[in-house]
């Protein structure tokens, strides 16, 4: 199965979702699910994320953590960077403890466990937030050209692009651990993430992104853009990986 590219321009404020390139849609809310193949409480949340992945106005992403691997099953999608991102979210919220499953809505609100009604309420709240950013994107042969317009009366904040490569769907036969014997289906599985500062000050920025990650040359690639605010936690600066 090919890996799809999801390039999210995440600024302070909100923007728009473009799938495919050039087509405008409602600004999406980013939902990050921290999960693990070795967590017996996670399958219901994994199922909820699968539903959100098909929902208009939502960017649903699964980040698999590695701290359940000691039980006997090493999560095939887990990366230390995703575990670090969850810990960083906890520290930002004043906590040193992390849980699975945990959803982070819009980079701000945390939902631990399987609580679909709470998630629905937060999606509505974030989706109704004002939109001070207008974004557009054009695909090039080797990346993306973006335009970000700050529409609010206040000074434009520092702007950062998050690039995320994700796998749309995968079935996994889990042989050991708490979910031994389960054939699990996972959706929008993040495989790589990167932060890309694009500047501050001007009310209009026109960055050119030329990333070296994820799905270049593969089929089933898409691009989504949102101006919603997310912290650059756990991602790699492109200067550190030659991107």
Description:
- This protein is an alpha+beta fold and 243 residues long.
- It has a single domain, classed as Glutaredoxin, CATH 3.40.30.
- Helix content is 15%, strand content 36%.
- It is built from 3 helices and 13 strands, in the order ββββαβαββαββββββ.
- The strands form 4 sheets. It has a 4-stranded mixed sheet with strand order 5-4-6-7, sandwiched between helices. Strands 8, 9, 12 and 13 form a 4-stranded antiparallel sheet that branches. A 3-stranded antiparallel sheet has the order 1-10-11, with helices on one face.
- It starts with a strand and ends in a 34-residue tail after the last strand.
- The relative contact order is 0.28.
- It comes from Roseicyclus elongatus DSM 19469.
Total E-strand runs: 13
CATH class: Alpha Beta
Report the C-alpha radius of gyration, rounded: 17 Å
Give the spatial strand order of the biggest sheet.
5-4-6-7
Assess the beta-strand content as a share of residues. Answer: 35-45%
How is the CATH topology named? Answer: Glutaredoxin
User: What is the helix fraction of residues, given as a range?
Assistant: 10-25%
For the terminal residues, how far apart are their CA atoms?
24 Å
Number of distinct helices: 3
Identify low-pLDDT runs. Answer: 1-26, 214-226, 237-243
CATH architecture: 3-Layer(aba) Sandwich
Mean pLDDT across all residues, rounded? 76
Shape: globular
Class from helix and strand fractions: alpha+beta
CATH-defined superfamily: Glutaredoxin
Number of structurally distinct domains: 1
Topology as a string of helices (H) and strands (E): EEEEHEHEEHEEEEEE
Organism: Roseicyclus elongatus DSM 19469
Protein name: DUF1223 domain-containing protein
